[in-house]
């Protein structure tokens, strides 16, 4: 590892932590900072601004302008930090006994800092293959930035083949995770007197039938065989209703009801099937019944986020590269979602492997150990051989 890489990483991490890039707020200053650091090494950069203009992704490339090779990817946004729960300012890096504290240290500015510190090393090599850096916005609220970045890449003529997503895994090699799809389904009926339920459209009654159907589909999912999902716990696609809201009072028909639900597909086809069974049920059963009484009645499903799973596949170059670099012989699957599935959908081979522990992510006094950062630098340095 280059002599000063860990010092550079710590300095860059301190700078990154000082940008309070909570998902609700802008990340533009951080993106400008990473852009200028990478440009100093000679990287070609592209800033992809969000539709609202408040956020941006950065995509940068070192090495030849050819297809293929590796993307190092990390999200720039962090979850909120309640200062009163922290020992020190969450947006000021604090070092104590080999640990670096601050919001985002482990999830996942530590990885980004290590990538940025390694950029000057990569730039000093005679690169035969390109190495790309992808820093995204809005991962924590639905992976919107990564989706946007991946939509734009083909327009730039860039086609990487391997992606390493540096989410905190303590540098264990993760080759699969479930998807996470979240929805709110809104039922709109009419109000009326509780003594005459058939003269109105009680949104809660229809929402209840919808939930029953959803649970039936969920039970059917348990019977589906997905050999590649065996290592998940549980090894099938789950559905779950987490919140319902609607109605005014016991003796009034409910005009509105909202059902907040999610599913965690082990296979994209399950996700499509659940959605199509439910929309068929709404269009052919529930909605006609509602509209017989009140033609303006409606059912609409709002997509809160659809984060694709990372499918375990037999041939995975990214996994093989990272296993060789970290010395791990075994790969794992995890319960948490990442941007990895989106990269995989674009045809890349993908692995999740990064410094720090998911146990510290989203917590007060979030930290990463200097030891983990230094092991991450070793892994990134190991990529040099492949790139030259
Ligand atoms: Zn993360």
Write the layout of secondary structure elements.
Elements: H1 5-17, H2 28-40, E1 44-49, E2 56-62, E3 70-75, E4 94-96, E5 99-101, H3 105-123, E6 131-136, H4 144-152, E7 162-165, E8 174-177, E9 180-188, H5 203-221, E10 238-246, E11 256-264, H6 268-293, E12 298-307, H7 317-326, E13 332-334, H8 340-345, E14 349-352, E15 367-369, H9 370-387
Parallel strand pairs: 3-6, 3-7, 7-14, 8-13
Antiparallel strand pairs: 1-2, 2-6, 4-5, 5-15, 9-11, 9-12, 10-11
Helix pairs in contact: 1-3, 1-9, 3-9, 5-6, 7-9
Bound molecules: zinc ion.
Residues 75, 107-108, 139, 167 line the site of zinc ion.
Walk me through the structure.
The chain is α/β, with parallel strands linked by helices. The chain folds into two domains: 5-177 and 309-387, Aminopeptidase (3-Layer(aba) Sandwich), CATH 3.40.630.10; 180-307, Alpha-Beta Plaits (2-Layer Sandwich), CATH 3.30.70. 34% of the residues lie in helices and 22% in strands. The protein is built from nine helices and 15 strands. The chain has a six-stranded mixed β-sheet with strand order 1-2-6-3-7-14, sandwiched between helices. Strands 10-11-9-12 form a four-stranded antiparallel β-sheet, covered by helices on one side. Zinc ion (ZN) is lined by residues 75, 107-108, 139, 167.
Distance between the termini: 16 Å
The level of helicity is 25-40%
* Total tally of structural domains: 2
CATH architecture of the largest domain: 3-Layer(aba) Sandwich
Strand content: 15-25%
Total count of helical runs of at least 4 residues: 9
Rg from Cα: 24 Å
- Residue stretches low in confidence (pLDDT < 50, at least 5 long) are none
Q: Under CATH, the topology of the largest domain is which? A: Aminopeptidase
User: What does the average pLDDT come to?
Assistant: 95
For the largest beta-sheet, the strand count, sense and barrel status come to:
6 strands, mixed
């Amino acid at each position: 590892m280059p002599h000063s890489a860990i010092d550079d990483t710590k300095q860059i991490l301190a700078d990154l932590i000082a940008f309070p890039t909570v998902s609700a707020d802008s990340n533009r200053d951080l993106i400008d900072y990473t852009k200028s650091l990478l440009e100093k090494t000679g990287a070609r950069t592209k800033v992809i601004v969000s539709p609202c203009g408040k956020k941006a992704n950065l995509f940068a490339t070192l090495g030849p302008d050819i297809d293929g090779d590796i993307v190092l990817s990390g999200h720039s946004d962090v979850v909120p930090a309640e200062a009163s729960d922290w020992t020190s300012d969450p947006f000021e890096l604090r070092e104590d006994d080999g640990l670096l504290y601050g919001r985002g240290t482990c999830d996942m500015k530590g990885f980004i800092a290590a990538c940025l510190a390694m950029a000057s090393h990569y730039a000093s090599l005679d690169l035969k293959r390109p190495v790309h850096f992808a820093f995204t916005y809005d991962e924590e609220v639905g992976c919107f930035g990564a989706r946007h970045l991946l939509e734009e890449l083909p327009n730039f003529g860039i086609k990487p083949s391997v992606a390493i997503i540096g989410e905190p895994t303590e540098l264990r090699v993760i080759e699969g995770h479930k998807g996470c799809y979240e929805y709110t389904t809104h039922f709109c009926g009419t109000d009326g007197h509780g003594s005459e339920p058939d003269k109105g459209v009680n949104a809660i009654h229809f929402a209840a039938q919808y939930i029953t159907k959803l649970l039936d589909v969920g039970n059917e999912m348990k019977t589906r065989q997905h050999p590649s999902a065996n290592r998940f716990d549980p090894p099938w696609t789950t559905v779950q209703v987490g919140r319902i809201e609607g109605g005014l009072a016991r003796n009034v028909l409910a005009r509105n009801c909202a059902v907040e639900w999610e599913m965690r597909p082990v296979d994209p086809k399950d996700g499509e099937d659940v959605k199509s069974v439910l929309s068929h049920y709404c269009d052919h059963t529930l909605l006609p019944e509602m509209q017989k009484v009140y033609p303006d009645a409606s059912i609409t499903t709002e997509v809160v986020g659809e984060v694709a799973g990372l499918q375990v596949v037999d041939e995975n170059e990214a996994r093989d590269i990272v296993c060789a670099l970290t010395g791990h012989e075994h790969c794992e699957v995890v319960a948490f979602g990442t941007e990895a599935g989106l990269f995989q959908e674009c045809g890349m081979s993908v692995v999740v492997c990064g410094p720090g522990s998911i146990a510290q992510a989203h917590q007060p006094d979030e930290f990463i150990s200097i030891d983990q950062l230094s092991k991450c630098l070793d892994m990134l340095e190991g990529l040099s051989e492949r790139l030259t």
